[in-house]
Amino acid sequence: GAEVRVVTKRGGNAFHGTAYEYYLDNNFSANTWDNNYNATVNGAPTKNPPSFHYSRFGGSFGGPLISKEILGGKTYFFANYEGFRYPNSTTINKEVPSPNMRLGILQDPAGNLYNLQTLDPRGIGISPAVQKLWQFEPASNASCAAGARCDGINVLGFSANVSVPLKSNFGVLRMDHDFGSKWHFMSSYRYFRLTRATVDQIDI
Do the beta carbons of residue 29 and residue 89 sit within 8 Å? Predict the structure, then answer.
C-alpha cells in the first residue's frame, strides 16, 4: 500500500520562476489510411491528412509578498499558469443522398429506376421539405465507409476534414503566512476552463 499527498508549491525567501513551452505538429506525418483508400477507390487526388498541432505552455513565479515580518513571520505567494491550445482536425465519414435520390428517383441493384412522383397516387413524390434540407448537404466524394448506412446506389459516402479545436486555461494562486515555527496560514485559489468542439455538433 501507499499514501500519496499532493501539495501546491509555496513561495520562499527569494523570487523564483519557471517557463516552458511544448509544441507538437503532425503536418510532416504520413496520410491516414481512410484518405488513401478513398483516393484509390474514387481515383481522386489523395486528400491531405487532417492537420493539427498543439501547444502546451505555462509558467510559475513565487517569492516573498511582504519582505518584513508581520505577526511573527513573513508572507509568501506562489502563482502557476498553464495553457493548452489544440486546433485539432479530424476526418469524418457521413452518408449523403445520390443525385437521383435528391430528385426523388430511386434505383435498385439491377439498375432499374423508380420515380416516386410517378408511383405516388397523389402525384407528389418526394417531400419538398426533405429536398430543401438536402440542398445543404454536400455532394458525395467518397465510397461508403465500413459500417455506414449507405448502399452505394441511393445513399453515397462523404468524407472531409473537420476542425475540432480544444483549448484550456488553468491557474493556481497560493498565499502563505508563517506566524512562527508551529503556526502557519495557507490559502489557495484554482481556476480551470475547458472549451472543446466535437464532431457530434456536425449534422449534415
Answer: no
* Nearest residue to 61 (alpha-carbon basis) of 187, 189, 172, 191: 172
CA angle 165, 59, 3 (to 5 degrees): 95
Is residue 203 over pLDDT 60? no
Question: Closest Cα to residue 170, out of 61, 86, 87, 81?
Answer: 81
Q: How far apart are CA 72 and CA 178, in angstroms?
A: 7
d(CA 141, CA 161): 12
User: Which among 49, 85, 54 has a CA at the least distance from the CA of 193?
Assistant: 85
Contact 136, 204 (CB under 8 A): yes
State the pairing for strand pair 105-107/113-115.
antiparallel
The residue among 195, 185, 186, 191 whose CA lies nearest residue 80 is: 191
Confidence of residue 143 (pLDDT cuts 50, 70, 90): confident
b/e burial code for range 27-47 (CB count within 10 A of at least 16 → b): eeeeebebbebbbeeeeeeeb
